Design the sequence.
């Protein structure tokens, strides 16, 4: 039952965050790149003011998988950075925390580029 | 007929059926939610062999791997046609934007095509996200000095 609730919360919160994105696509003229930048920066700001952390506690992957969760990860990295290295940690923190995800995206993206063929967009 | 851009977009908004918005919203919610459920399942799976923090990172990397794989197979963009933001907003959408651009611009060469244009969408995310975090870090550091 606990595990079912965990998945249900992830589904509801993750779905809701995507629902907001869909409204941005359908009702505004924002391009995907702008929407993604909006999500990641919103994630940093919401973490900084202490709102996103509780959401991650509650919803798990429902809050960390959407791109706002990437912002959360960056902000958490910076908090840990300044705790351990002072002001220098503000520079080293973000990518220390995000290194795995960013590197995976570059590596697997490049591999996809090497093996993948351009598909018809229709 | 002389129309300004806003008048024209009002007209097209009126002409397009409202049910399309509803359908798009439901699909985005369901698909986006489902991707997060897969993410949670991956965290739980990796937790069996890794400490909790590492399991979360491994789960993200696994999602990114799957997104790149499905992009290379041409399946991710098919799903994206239906799911819209449901496939864009999760981390898989970020990975897809890199992988899809790497594939699309391969014809322009591995350096100036793939290497440069991989980041055509992901680039701004990797600029503004971390910079916002650095600003937060500087503010947090200053607050620690005075509080």
Sequence:
């Amino acid at each position: 039952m606990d595990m079912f609730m965990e998945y249900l919360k992830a589904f509801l919160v993750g779905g809701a965050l995507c629902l907001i994105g869909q409204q941005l696509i359908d009702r505004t003229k924002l391009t995907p790149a702008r929407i993604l930048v909006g999500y990641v920066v919103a994630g940093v700001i919401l973490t900084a003011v202490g709102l996103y952390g509780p959401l991650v506690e509650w919803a798990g992957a429902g809050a960390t998988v959407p791109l706002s969760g990437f912002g959360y990860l960056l902000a958490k990295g910076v908090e840990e950075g300044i705790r351990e290295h002072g002001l220098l940690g503000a520079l080293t923190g973000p990518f220390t925390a995000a290194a795995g995800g960013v590197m995976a995206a570059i590596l697997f993206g490049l591999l996809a580029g090497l093996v993948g063929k351009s598909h018809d967009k229709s | 007929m002389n129309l300004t851009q806003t008048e024209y977009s009002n007209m097209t908004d009126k002409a397009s059926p409202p049910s399309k918005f509803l359908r798009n919203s439901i699909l985005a919610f369901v698909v986006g939610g489902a991707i997060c459920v897969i993410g949670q399942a991956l965290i739980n799976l990796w937790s069996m062999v890794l400490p909790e923090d590492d399991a979360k990172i491994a789960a993200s990397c696994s999602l990114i791997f799957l997104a790149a794989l499905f992009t290379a197979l041409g399946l991710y963009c098919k799903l994206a046609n239906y799911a819209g933001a449901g496939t864009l907003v999760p981390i898989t959408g970020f990975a897809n934007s890199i992988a899809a651009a790497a594939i699309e611009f391969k014809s322009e060469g591995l350096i100036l095509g793939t290497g440069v244009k991989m980041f055509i969408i992901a680039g701004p995310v990797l600029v503004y996200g971390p910079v916002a975090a650095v600003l937060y870090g500087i503010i947090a550091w200053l607050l620690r000095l005075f509080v």
